[in-house]
Write a structure and sequence with these properties.
Blueprint (H helix, E strand, L loop, with lengths): L2 H12 L5 E2 L8 H12 L1 H5 L11 H11 L1 E5 L10 H14 L3 E2 L1 E3 L6 H10 L4 E5 H4 L9 H10 L3 E4 L12 H10 L5 E3 L7 H10 L4 E3 L6 H4 L9 H7 L3 E2 L11 H9 L6 H15 L9
Parallel strand pairs: 1-2, 2-3, 4-5, 5-6, 6-7, 7-8, 8-9
């Protein structure tokens, strides 16, 4: 066991947890992941500073790394940036979930003809969580081509990790307003707003606290890398604590410019946060949302 793995395991063990549920990890076809890594390798001129990939290794090693950390469940967040891509990604994800029992079977979609049909197929194949990336996909979540998709996901209660905040760069359709409009039409949607909605933290906390089923994930929040550019407002920490059961742990593994341990210590070091809140965020809240065994076993 590596030193980092031992340190990560010590964090959740001290809380009396059986491990971690990480709702924001990326596994995807190699050709797609290579392009994602190329984007981050070029991120200096794009976001104003270098963005090194900490866990740049082959797929089997990345899975083993998460297991070594004691991550009991994780996701294969896939997302298209153009039409005629989502269905193919979903087919890849079926096989990955089949051979990786601790991965929550993940699927995705794009506003295009046929989206309702392939989302229906993905649900039938066992998809338990979806990914929507408003910034990369450059689409309005209220596009009429997605009406059937959102209705189906709301009815089934299937969670959707959605990157809709304006960090690290704003897009044409990022920000809280499109999500408010979406929830007015589909109030039961189990959205998981990625990165706590950074940098619009306060607005997405409003949405979470006012909603029926919206969650927030902690991906990259409070780490030194993020705080240097998009700090979380300390005045909103009490509301984050109040959101308790709606906060889920996410890391963005492997595409993070820091260590996995840092994602955890960024949370454990927050002022005014107690161990029970941490137990919920690191394991219990996601275990409830996905109906997982309380001992973390498969």
């Amino acid at each position: 066991m590596s030193d980092e793995a031992a340190e990560v395991r010590a964090i959740w063990s001290a809380l009396g947890l059986p491990g971690i549920v990480d709702v924001h990890t990326h596994f995807m076809p190699k050709s797609v992941l290579d392009k994602v890594w190329h984007y981050f390798d070029s991120a200096g001129p794009l976001v104003g500073r270098p963005w090194p990939i900490t866990y740049r290794s082959d797929e089997a090693e990345r899975v083993a790394t998460l297991r070594g950390f004691g991550v009991r469940r994780f996701t294969s967040l896939i997302y298209p940036h153009k039409p005629d891509m989502a269905a193919w990604l979903n087919q890849w994800a079926v096989e990955f979930a089949r051979t990786t029992a601790d991965c929550l079977h993940t699927a995705t979609f794009y506003p295009e003809p046929g989206a309702t049909e392939y989302v229906t197929e993905a649900l039938g194949a066992g998809a338990r969580i979806f990914k929507a990336h408003i910034q990369v996909g450059d689409y309005d979540p209220n596009d009429p081509l997605l009406d059937g998709v959102w209705a189906m996901l709301a009815e089934s209660g299937t969670p959707v990790v959605i990157h809709c905040g304006s960090g690290p760069q704003p897009g044409r359709f990022t920000g809280p307003d499109p999500i408010r409009a979406l929830l007015r039409r589909h109030p039961r949607l189990a959205l998981i707003v990625a990165h706590l909605g950074m940098p619009e933290y306060a607005e997405f906390l409003d949405i979470c606290l006012d909603s029926i089923a919206v969650h927030l994930d902690t991906t990259m929040a409070f780490t030194g890398f993020t705080e240097a550019a998009m700090p979380f407002p300390l005045t909103d920490l009490p509301r984050l604590r109040d959101a308790g059961e709606r906060i889920l742990f996410g890391s963005d593994f492997p595409n993070i410019p820091h260590g996995y341990r840092d994602a955890l210590t960024a949370l454990t070091g927050l002022p005014g946060i107690d161990d029970d809140w941490l137990r919920g965020v690191l394991f219990r809240n996601a275990a409830t949302l996905f109906d997982l065994p309380s001992d973390g076993e498969l």
